[in-house]
Structure formats: C-alpha cells, structure tokens
C-alpha cells in the first residue's frame, strides 16, 4: 500500500534544487532600492540642498514669499528669524525656515 510519508518524499524529490535561490531573492530587493533611490530619495536631496542654499543666500531687501503665501520684503534677518515688511507700516516676524522662495525683481531678471 502507498504510504502518506512516501508521497511527501516523492513530492520533495520532484521539486527542482534552488541553486541560485539567494541571488534570486536579493536581486529584486537591490533593484527596488535602486529605483527608490533614483526616483524618490535623490531628487528630494537635491531639492533640499537647493532650498538650504536659497535660505542661506537671503539678505536684507530681498523680496520673498512665505510657505503661507505672504509676500514681503526682508527688513531684518538673523540665523533663525526673518522680519518681513508686508506694506508700508506692517512688519511681521517669521522663522527663517518658513520662507518658501525668493522672488526675482525686474532688475535681476534683466541681468
């Protein structure tokens, strides 16, 4: 009679030996990491680097836009605080990191 344990042994013998199993498991993970790096991580690092350069180059008199969309001119600037003049009388204090981008003035864009 045919034993159940013998059928398991026959089934185990029928499966092919996985000689390249480790490479077959690691290669897709390496490819996924490379794709994530070049499509997500690297562009984000470049964007962060350019933002840090922009924040470092800010000076008094620059026209800027905050993250909240407020337009103003820098009146005072320190390492972590920026005072913006919004209109002739109103001055508002912001963290330096709240500056979204600097606007180019017409004189700068002609040069």
From TrEMBL:
Keyword annotations: Cell membrane, Membrane, Protein transport, Translocation, Transmembrane, Transmembrane helix, Transport
Any GO BP: protein transport
Record localization: Cell membrane
UniProt keyword annotation of 4Fe-4S present: no
Superkingdom per UniProt: Bacteria
Bilayer-crossing regions: 20-41
Cross-referenced Pfam families: YajC
Classification via SMART domains: YajC (SM01323)
Assigned GO CC terms: plasma membrane
Xref: InterPro entries: Preprotein_translocase_YajC (IPR003849)
NCBIfam families from the UniProt entry: yajC
PANTHER family, alphabetized: SEC TRANSLOCON ACCESSORY COMPLEX SUBUNIT YAJC
Annotated protein name in UniProt: Preprotein translocase subunit YajC
Organism: Paenibacillus azoreducens
């Amino acid at each position: 009679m045919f034993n159940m344990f013998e059928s398991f042994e026959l089934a185990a013998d029928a499966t092919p030996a996985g000689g390249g199993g480790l490479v077959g498991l690691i290669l897709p993970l390496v490819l996924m990491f490379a794709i994530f790096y070049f499509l997500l991580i690297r562009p984000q690092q470049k964007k962060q680097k350019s933002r840090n350069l922009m924040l470092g180059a800010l000076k008094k008199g620059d026209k800027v836009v905050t993250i909240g969309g407020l337009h103003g001119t820098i009146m005072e600037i320190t390492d972590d605080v920026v005072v913006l003049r919004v209109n002739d009388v109103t001055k508002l204090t912001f963290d330096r990191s709240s500056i979204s981008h600097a606007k180019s003035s017409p004189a700068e864009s002609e040069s």
